[in-house]
Structure formats: C-alpha cells, structure tokens
C-alpha cells in the first residue's frame, strides 16, 4: 500500500502516469508496504494467463526473492523509476523515504531492486551514468542502497508512520531495534531472486554472504 498522502497524476504521453506527494513526506517515512491485498503469482500461473492479462501482470509487477510476481493492488503499481530515487528499498517488504519528499514531487524508486526479468532502458538522468536497469542490479548496488536506507532509518522513529501497522510481525521487533537502538539493518541483497539456483539451498546467512561476493567486481574477489 502506498502512503496515504500520495495520488496518481498524468505526466505526459511518453511516461504516462506517476505517483505524487500531496503533502510533505519526511525522510524515514514508510512510503510503501507490502500488504495482504497485493496479489502474488507463481511463474507458471503468469504463463497460463491469456495474453492481455499476462502483459499487464508482467508490466506492473515485480519479483521477490522467491521469484513470485507481486502485483500491487493500489497505485503503487504505477510508481516510476529513477536512478536517483527518493524511495529506498529494504529487506523488510517496505520502502522508506530517503529524503524529504515535498508536496507535488513525484515518488520514484530504483527498478534495480525489483528483480526485473529483462534489462530496462531508461531516460538519461543528471548525476548518474546509469542508463539501463539490469536483472542483477541488486548484486551491483546493494551497498549503495543499504547506506541510503541506514541513513533514512535514523529518522524512522521520529516521524509519523501511517503505514506502520502493515509492517510484517516477523520484522517489527527488528525495526524497533533499528529505530531505537541503532541496530544495523539487514541488507537489501536478501531480496535478490537467484534465478539459476546457485545459492538457494544455502543457510540464509551463508547465502547473503555468497550473494555479496558474487556482486563484487572480479578483481576484488
């Protein structure tokens, strides 16, 4: 579910629509949370759909670490991409504001966290030389996104959280410790979908370590 102080607006014919803030959303605020109204599909279920519905699911869904397609029930499905996103992905089925988001500003996330099935070409942006989202971007940029999330979580306990009730029970205690005690966050690399199954049978802690190693440049291994 998207933050309640957001709405869908038309942008232009090339982009279509996007999600915009109707009020200031402070840094550290949950901007989106996975909830029980979101739909999940296995790969075989998507393949069995008729062409029209399959096209819509593939266009508007993302994949989690288990390879399930997640289709948001509300306007969260229309959030656009930016390499300089103001919404930061986490390992806790929530996204948070990486900085203050002002009224009238578009909310964006980095599609690199979404386990895209195919490379995704993007409009050029100032301040980055990235022009394409890749299926393995989580392995490339997780450290950048973890640093952004760590910084944003410093404000987590000091701002209103209208979506806090949607935090999954298995994550609630951890996030309380992150907010109140400054406990380190879990890496977003845990949400990487391991398509070829190289790491799927490993203990979770070993899996995350090996995923991190796989994402390093060859010279650094």
Q: How do you describe this structure in short?
A:
By secondary structure, the protein is of the alpha+beta class. The protein contains 5 helices and 12 strands. A hairpin with a 4-residue loop joins β8 and β9 (94-97).
Task: Describe the structure in your own words.
This protein has 221 residues and is α+β, with helices and mostly antiparallel strands. It has five helices and twelve strands. It has a four-stranded mixed β-sheet with strand order 1-2-10-7, with no helix packed on it. It is globular and about 45 Å long. The model has no long low-confidence stretch (mean pLDDT 92).
Overall pLDDT, averaged? 92
Shape call = globular
Oligomer: single chain
Order of helices and strands: EEEEHHEEEEEEEEHHH
Into which percentage range does the β-strand content fall? 15-25%
Task: Determine the structural class based on helices, strands and strand pairing.
Answer: alpha+beta
Summarize the biggest pleated sheet: 4 strands, mixed
Number of strands: 12
List the helices and strands and how they pair.
Elements: E1 6-12, E2 16-21, E3 30-33, E4 39-41, H1 43-47, H2 51-60, E5 61-63, E6 69-71, E7 80-81, E8 87-89, E9 94-97, E10 106-109, E11 120-121, E12 132-133, H3 137-153, H4 169-181, H5 204-215
Parallel strand pairs: 7-10
Antiparallel strand pairs: 1-2, 2-10, 3-9, 4-6, 5-6, 8-9, 11-12
Protein traits:
221 residues; four-stranded mixed sheet; three-stranded antiparallel sheet; globular
């Amino acid at each position: 579910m998207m933050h309640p102080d957001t709405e869908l607006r038309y942008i232009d014919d090339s982009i279509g629509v996007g999600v915009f803030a109707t009020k200031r959303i402070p840094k550290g605020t949950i901007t989106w949370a996975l909830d029980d109204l979101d739909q999940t599909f296995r790969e075989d279920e998507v393949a069995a759909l008729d062409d029209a519905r399959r096209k819509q699911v593939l266009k508007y869904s993302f994949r989690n670490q288990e390879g399930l397609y997640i289709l948001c029930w509300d306007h969260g499905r229309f959030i656009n991409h930016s390499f300089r996103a103001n919404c930061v992905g986490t390992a806790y089925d929530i996204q948070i504001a990486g900085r203050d988001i002002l009224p009238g500003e578009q909310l964006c996330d980095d599609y690199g966290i979404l386990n895209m099935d195919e490379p995704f070409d993007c409009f050029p942006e100032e301040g980055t030389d990235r022009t394409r989202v890749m299926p393995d971007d989580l392995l490339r940029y997780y450290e950048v996104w973890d640093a952004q999330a760590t910084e944003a979580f410093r404000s987590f306990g000091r701002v209103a959280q209208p979506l806090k009730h949607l935090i999954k029970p298995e994550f609630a205690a951890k996030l309380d410790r992150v907010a109140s005690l400054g406990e380190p966050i879990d890496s977003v690399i845990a949400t990487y979908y391991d398509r070829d199954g190289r790491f799927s049978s490993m203990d979770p802690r070993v899996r995350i370590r090996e995923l991190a190693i796989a994402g390093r440049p060859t010279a650094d291994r």
